[in-house]
Amino acid sequence: MAKMDKLLRGILLTAACFIIVLTAGIVYGLVSQSWDAFASFGFFRFIASTEWDSRNDIYGALPFIAGTVMTAVLAILFCIPFSLSVSLFNGEYFRNKKLSLFVSSVVDLLAGVPSIVFGLWGFYTLRPVLVDLGLSQQGFGVLLASIVLAVMIIPYASSLSAEFIAMVPNDLKEGAYSLGATNLEVIQRVSLPVAGSGIFASYILAFGRALGETMAVTMLIGNTNNIPRNLADTGNTMASIIANQFGEAGGLKLSALMVIGLLLFFITASVNFIAKYIMKLVNR
Amino acid sequence: MENTINTGYILELKEVSVSYTPGKYAVDKVNARIAPNTVTAIMGPSGCGKSTLLHAINRLHELYPGISTTGEILLKGENIFRMNPMKVRRLAGMVFQRPNPFPTMSISGNVLAGYKLNNISLNKKEKGLIVERSLRSVNLWDEVKDVLNKKGTFLSGGQQQRLCIARALALKPELLLMDEPTSALDPISTSRIEDLILELKKEYTIIIVTHNMSQAARISDNAMFMYLGKLVEYGTTRQMFTKPENKRTEDYLTGSFG
Amino acid sequence: MKKTKLSAPRYRLMKSRIFFYLVCTFSLLTMIPLFLIIGELIRKGYKQFNFDLFTKVAPTSMEAMLARISGDAIPGGILNGLAGTLLILAVAIVLAIPLGIATGVYLAEKKEKPLARLVRNLSDLLQGIPSIVIGVIVYIWVVKPMAGYSALAGSTALAIMMLPMVIRSTEESLKMLPDSLKEAGLALGGSYSAVVLRILLPSSFSGLFTGALLAISRVMGETAPLLVTVLGAATVNWDITQPTTAVSLLIWEFYNDPNLASLIWSSSLLLLLIVLCINLLAKSIAKKWKIQ
B117 near B140, Cβ under 8 Å? Predict the structure, then answer.
C-alpha cells in the first residue's frame, strides 16, 4: 500500500518536473540556436534593421515586428464591436438564456475552425471582395490579414469578457435600475466599469493570440519583407516569415529565424503574463 | 505498556490539541472518555472546533499540510498516532455533512468501497452478504434491493446519507463518527436517520457533531459543549440540558448566542 | 417644443433600445462567418467529396495537370494525409495525455505549494506559445538530432500544444469534486493511491475525457508546426521515424499548386467536419455532465 502511494507520488512529481524541464528546454533551444545571429548582428541592430537580404546574409527583424504589431492591433480594433456585442449579448442581455447558449456555442465553434481553413476563406472569399471595393489591387496585405485575424480572435475575446460581465453582482445593477437608469446606462455606468479590467485582460489575451497566429496570416499578408506603409500594403509577420522561409533556411538565416522565434516567444509570453496578472488582481 | 490496558472506555482523549496555524488552537487541550455503545453529541457554535475534533479522531488532518495535532487519542486503549492511519480510519467510520456517495460506483459498489480501497478481495457470496447486512442495518435494503447496480447518486438525499452510513458500517468499525449528518436533509429524512442512530447504538459507539440542540437532546446519552476550541462542559445529556454547570453552556442552550 | 419632448426619459429609453438592437445585430453578424465558411466548403467541395477521397493518395502535380488538360476531374484523394493525421495524432495522444493527467493531478493535489504554482504558471506559458514557435523548437530538439523529418517530430509538436490543455482540464475537473469525496475515501481506510486512482480520477472522468477531446480537436487542424517537422509524403506511411503528411499539410500543398487547387475544398470540408464534430461531442459531454 505504502509502496503504491510512494510510486504514485513519484509519478506525479516526475510529471510536474517534466513540465519545468520542457519549458527550460524550449527557452534553451531557442537561445542557443539564436546565438549565431546575435553574434553577427547584435541584438539591438537586429531588431532595428529593416534589411532581409539572403544573398548577402544580412538580416533584420524590424519589418516583421512592425507587421506583427500592425496586424494584431488592427485585428483587435476590428474585432471589438463584434466581440463586445457578443459578450454583452451573452453576459448581460441574455445571460443564462437558451438564446445565449446558442450564440456562444456558434461563436465558440469559430475558435475550432483550423487556421488554414480561415486562410482559404480569406484568400478565396474575402480577397476578391477587397479588390472589388477598390481597397487594394491584389487584395493581399495587412488589411486582409487583420480582418481574418479579427474573426479568428472574436471567440477568445468575447467568451472570457462575457464571463466577467456576467459576474457583475446583480444588486449593483438593481441599485442603478431602481434609481431610474435605462439598460444602456446600467451597462455604461455599472457593468462595463465593474467588469472593465477583466474585459481588458481578455482583449490582451486575444491580442496575444493574434500576435502568434501563423497559417492564415502567412496565406494572406502577401509575403514581402518590407515595413507595410499603409493598410493595403503587403508585408510579413514574425510568425509568417518563419513559416515562409524556414524550409529553405540554413546557417545564419536559420539562426536569424530562430531569433525571431525567440522574440515572438518572449513577446507572447509577456503579453499573456500581463493578462493573467490583471485577471489575478480582478479575482481578488 | 500502560496505554494498552483496557480501561472499559472505547475512546480516550488526553490533552488533544489541533492547530491550523502555529500558536492558534482550533481544539485546545481536550480531555474526555467515551464509553462503548453510547451516543455522544458534540455541540457548540460554528467555529468552536467540534468538526476539527471529530476529524482528528479519524486522523483526517494528515491530508492537509500545516495542521498539527498533539496529545493522545486512545482507541480501545491503543494510541491512534502509533497505529497505521488506514487502520485507524477503518476502525473509526466517518459520515459527512453532505451525503457523498462515490459518483462512479453503483449502490453495492459504494457499500463495498472500503474493501475495494483496501484491496481486500471478496468472493461473490461474501460481497452479497456484506451488501445485504450493511444495507439492512441502515434500513435501506428493502428500498434498494432491486436496484443495487444503479448509481448511488440517483437516490434521494436521505437515502444517499443512509447509503453513506452503510458504506462506513460495511467495514465493521468500532466507532462511528458523524459530522452533522442531517444538516443537508429534510425533516423526514432527518428523523429516519435519528431513529437509525438509536438502533445502531446497540452495536456501535457513535460520536455525532450537531448544530441542532433538540437533535442532541433526542438521541444522545452524553453531550460535550465546546467553545473557542475548549471543551467547556461534558456530562450526561440530561444533566446538561436541565442544569448546566457552566454559564456559557447555559447561554448557548437557551439561545443567548451561537 | 420638440426638444422638450425628446428630453429626459423618452430620449434615454430610445438610446438604450437602439443600443440593444445594435448589440443584437453585431452578435448576429459575428455568427455569419462560420456558416459562410461551411457553406463555401460544401458548395465547392461536395463534388470531390467521394469515395476516392478516403481510398486514394494525393495525385502528383503532373497527374492533376494531365487530368485538367483533358477536362477530367482530378484523380486521387487524401488517404496519405488521413493516415498521417491519424498516426501523428495517435502518438501525440500517447505522449500528452498520461503526462498531462499526471501533472494535472499533481497541481490539484498540491494547490498553492511553490512547485505547483511554478508548474501551473509554466503550463500557462506553454499554452501561449505560438504554434509555429513550437514547430521550430521541435525542429531543434527532434528533427535535427534524428537527422530528418518524421511523424514523431510532428507528434511531439502537437503533444506540446495539447499538454497545457490536458493539464488545465484535469486540474479543473478534479477541483470541482467536493473535498469530502476524498475524505470519505480515506475515512474508509483507503490509501492515497487507491483514493486517487479508484475514486478521484473515475469521478472526474467525463471532465478529463472532454478536455482530451477538445485538445485533440484543437491540434488536429494545425498546419504550421507540422510544416517544419513532418515535411510531407506522397504515400501512406506508418513508420513514426519517417517523413509523413497530414490532411492540413496536404491542403497547404494543394493551395500552393494551382494544378491541385480543386482538391482543396473536399479535403478542407472533411477536416472541418471532423474537427467540429469532435468539438461538439466534447461540449455535449461537458453539458450532460454538468447537469448531473
Answer: no
Query: In whole angstroms, what is the distance from residue A255 CA to residue A61 CA?
Result: 12
Question: Taking CB atoms and an 8 Å limit, are C182 and B117 in contact across chains?
Answer: no
Q: Comparing C-alpha atoms, which of A205, A236, A215 is closest to residue A142?
A: A236
A254 inside 8 A of chain C by CB: no
Mean predicted lDDT score pLDDT of chain B: 89
Residue C69: how many other CB atoms lie within 10 Å: 9
Set of chain A residues whose Cβ sits within 8 Å of the Cβ of C29: 82
Q: Report the gap between the CA of A131 and the closest CA in chain C (Å).
A: 19
Q: Going from the N-terminus, what domains does chain B have, and what CATH number goes with each?
A: 2-98+176-253 (3.40.50.300)
| In chain A, % of residues over pLDDT 90 | 72
**Is the separation of the CB atoms in A144 and A67 below 8 Å?**
no
Give the list of residues 6+ apart from residue B258 with CB closer than 8 angstroms, or none.
B44, B45, B252
Residue B258 has what pLDDT?
A: 53
Summarised one tens digit per residue, pLDDT across range C101-136 is 999 999 999 988 999 999 999 999 999 999 999 999
Choose the weakest-confidence range: B6-10, C112-116, C143-147: B6-10
Who has greater pLDDT, A29 or B104?
Answer: A29
Q: Which of C133, C161, C263 to mutate to test the interface with A (most CBs of A within 10 A)?
A: C133
Among residues 71-110 of chain A, which lie with CB inside 8 Å of chain C?
A: 81-86, 88-89, 93, 103, 105-110
Banded model confidence at residue A203, pLDDT cuts 50, 70, 90: very high
Please give the Cα distance from B72 to C61 (Å, whole number).
83
- Each residue of A48-83: pLDDT tens digit? 899 888 888 889 999 999 999 999 999 999 999 999
**In chain C, helix, strand, coil percent, each to 5?**
80, 0, 20
| Overall average pLDDT of the C251-272 stretch | 92
Q: State how far the Cα of A186 lies from the Cα of A184, in Å rounded to an integer.
A: 5
Domains along chain A? Answer: 64-243 (1.10.3720.10)
Residue A250 has pLDDT above 70, yes or no: yes
Do B104 and C199 lie within an 8 Å CB cutoff?
A: yes
> In the predicted model, what is the mean pLDDT of residues B45-71?
87
Please name the member of C16, C103, C276 whose beta carbon is closest to the beta carbon of A183. Answer: C16
- Do residues C92 and C150 touch, judged by C-beta distance below 8 A? no
Q: What is d(CA B77, CA B83) in angstroms, rounded to the nearest whole number? A: 12
Indicate yes or no: CB of C115 within 8 angstroms of CB of A16.
yes
Confirm if A146 and A211 have CB atoms less than 8 A apart: no
Residue-level pLDDT at A1 = 59
From A212, which residue of chain C is nearest by alpha-carbon distance? C130
| Contacts A85 to C, Cβ<8 Å | 22-27, 30
Q: Which chains touch C (3 or more CB pairs under 8 A)?
A: A, B
Residue A284 has pLDDT above 70, yes or no: no
The gap from C-alpha C11 to its chain's centroid, in whole angstroms, comes to 48
pLDDT attached to residue B94: 92
* Choices 1.10.3720.10, 1.25.40.20, 1.10.357.10, 1.25.40.10: CATH for C79-291: 1.10.3720.10
pTM for the model stands at: 0.89
